[in-house]
Fold:
Amino acid sequence: MSERIKPKEKRYDKLGPKVAEALKRRHFDAYYCPTGEEAAQKVLSLIPEGDVVAWGGSETLSVLGIIDKVKKAYTVIDREEASTPEERVQKMRQALLADTFLMSSNAISEDGQLFNIDGNGNRVAALVYGPKSVIVVAGMNKVTKTAEEARDRARHLAAPLNAQRFQLDTPCSINGSCADCLSQSSICASMLCTRICRPAGKIKVVLVGEELGF
Structure:
């Protein structure tokens, strides 16, 4: 444990529980886990036995090994197993009615609001309505001081990085800066602020005291 505690991690350990409390005031279930290992264990403990589980694209979930663990323990809807584009779309639609949906968040403000940007809309759709439970896993590097900064992070940091990761044909994929484009390839087709969890407890947020994802 002593090797982990550096200035940034020390700050996360102090701020993380406060952000979790802010999320709880907005009716999210929220938890702070200092390490990725603890976070992965917490996520698995939040998924009821027998649930059908799906997820949105997330580097955070992959890095923490959560997807691999879920595949071994639950029935899953995995769009990567599709053999055709049509089947992939069908699986993404089915995921909206999963028992538990896993995802990350592009940004979270210190006062407990989630900000997400989506190209296809499947992540934000699941977050708003459909699955019985949504579990959001986010590294503390995604926490910003204000809601305005959270929106800015989602739009001007996370979106260009994800556009480059997916090799999209957009200005931000080429030069790294948002051009407020109207491209059909835009990853900023839908922008969502989730300021209150309704019904209470449907969305569970697991904050991780590490640098994870974009």
Observations:
- The longest helix spans residues 7-25.
- Strands lie at 29-33, 52-55, 75-77, 100-103, 107-109, 114-118, 133-139, 143-144, 190-194, 203-208.
